Amino acid sequence: ALQKPILLADLEALLGRCLLTAAPIDPESLVAALSRREIHVYYQPKATRIAPNRWIIEGVEALARWQHPTLDMISPAQFIPLAEKHGLIRTLTEQVLETALSQCRAWDAAGLSLSVAINLSPQLLNDRSFPDQVARMTDQAGADPRRIIFEVTESAAMSDPDTTMDVLTRMRVKNFGLSIDDFGTGYSSLKQLYLMPFSELKIDTSFVRDVFSHEDARTMVETMVLLAHKLRLTACAEGVESQEVLDFLDAVGCDRAQGYFIGRPMTGNALAACTREWNALYGS
Ligand code: C2E
Ligand code: CA
Ligand code: CA
Ligand code: CA
């Protein structure tokens, strides 16, 4: 029998993310995209363990998507570095935050109270005016800062540790949550973890993915959960793709879980439906 060819779009839907496009993207088109508001926001659910074997969705991570009018959807893996390089990351982040805050109001109106995680480029932690700006935006949207978590990946861009520390402290004082993203990879160090005022530790996908193929990965995940708790942080595992992995996380007392098994990144409306369905199924 003839098999339907697999289209790029199918693959993309299957993977739940955007494939890298071969089209050249340049800073000028990103500037245009920002002014035309072509940067959309998708939301991926984060489940919280409220009791053994009971996980409910009460938060999301906001993920940027560039919906180009003629090209396919462009992955953040492509345009975030471009935005960072060309001084556009602050504008982009403010747009993502603004969109997420207004989505929160829409969810509130629909009877859903969700916390939102926003990704912060390490560059922004060199900008001492940033905390006041986000506090102003949050206040104007009538949102409680406790509902907003900023996820930061450590990087060499944290060139000035004093400024970084100052910016993070200002955010914490304003009651925003702070999450150390992709923990255990790249530049993330144990030293930063206890020095900086984080409230959540995100265990990187690379460990979570391997829990059933490598015994050592299980040890790593379990130990990172323990470490987070000892430091009074919440532990969140990313890349949870199966019930088995969720059960393992449950057994080691991980507080939050995120991944395709719980839900893919999706539009605000789809997220509301997904949350109701999941919480009815797993929350009781
Ligand atoms: P991240 O912060 O580590 O976000 C998680 C990425 O993993 C997302 O990719 C998400 O779609 C993907 N993912 C989630 N669950 C699973 C799973 O179960 N399996 C697998 N294989 N992957 C999963 P995405 O949306 O392509 O974003 C890539 C990166 O781009 C993000 O990594 C983040 O570092 C960056 N990014 C996205 N939006 C923003 C933004 O608004 N600002 C900044 N500064 N960075 C952003
Ligand atoms: Ca993140
Ligand atoms: Ca991550
Ligand atoms: Ca990442």
Q: Can you give a write-up of this model?
A:
Keywords: Phosphoprotein. With 284 residues, this protein is of the alpha/beta class. 43% of the residues lie in helices and 20% in strands. Helix 5 (130-140) packs parallel to helix 6 (161-173). The model has no long low-confidence stretch (mean pLDDT 91). It binds ligand C2E and calcium ion (3 copies). One calcium ion binds next to loops.
Q: Compute the average pLDDT.
A: 91
- Helical residue percent band: 40-55%
- What would you call the structural class? alpha/beta
Order of helices and strands: HHEEEHHEHEHEHEHHEHEH
Uncertain ranges = none
Distance between the termini: 45 Å
Shape: globular
SS summary, helix count: 11
- How many β strands by DSSP? 9
Task: Please compute the radius of gyration using only Cα atoms.
Answer: 19 Å
Quick one: biggest sheet?
A: 8 strands, mixed, barrel
Distinct small molecules: ligand C2E, calcium ion
Adjacency order of strands in the biggest sheet: 1-2-4-5-6-7-8-9
Strand content: 15-25%
GO molecular function: cyclic-guanylate-specific phosphodiesterase activity
GO biological process, one term: phosphorelay signal transduction system
Keywords: Phosphoprotein
